Amino acid sequence: MKKYSFIIPHYNSVKSLLKLLDTIPKNDDIQIIIVDDNSTDDISAAENYVTANPQCELYQNDTGVQSAGACRNIGLKHAHGKWVLFADADDYFLDNLQAQLDLYYDTIFDVIYFTPTSIDLLTNEISDRHLNTKNRIDDYLREPSFKNNVNLRLRNYVVWSKMISRELLVGFGINFEETYVANDTMFSAKLGSYAIKIKATSEVIYCVTKGANTLTSVTRERYKIRRAAYIRRYLYLKMTLFPNEWKLLKLAGASQLQHIINEKLGLAIFLETLYLFIKNRVRIFPSEYFNPVFLIRKLRSKY
Fold it and tell me: Contact, 156 vs 111, CB < 8 A?
């Protein structure tokens, strides 16, 4: 058995993939799994890299569905490491990776949360893509309360910058949805709901990049896929969480509606989303919005 299995979905980004691979140590206890999503570009450079490095394995997505989620599921089937780490092909790890991973190899945690950073490839400056995850970790490190524990586990929507027990993934059958975007939404929800023993650290091992063609860019079709994933996540957590966890999360669809307005996706999408939320009994506003004391404090904070 390997110590660590790195799973990397890839599509038409060989140059950045090679940069990422160069930041992962090539030790016998490390398994690097690349799953190509049927790239249309020439990937011979990646194939040559794999041939020269026996720690690397290259597979093709043969599911018939173009999706990073399908690629990650293939990677999970081939993973042998005690710990699993996910990376996107256009991101990279930092120099202290091996030392930080080894600190937690023999621990019994379900998930280790590492603080990420990010960079804008167009400006070469620090980006904002890592801030939500970083802020959750910072809050937990400052005060490891029940509230911050729940927020870290269940409001952490990304799969990168964390080390996950493969035993947990296999034991609970946690895998990815095979959607074009938001394939990690349900994965993260299930991981957060099943993880009991967690650890967070301020050490930075992963840099997520922001570019012009990132799948986080908003289009109407991508938003519809994300909206469906949001509803599935909402209903799953409502059904599976303990009442005190569910109450603390305060999940509500108002942020989704605000997102539609901010991204100028149109009135039709707004009304369609509102209808779907009502149909699926997704709460629109957090309960405190109907508390006069909360509303007065909120108004005061604005003025």
Answer: no
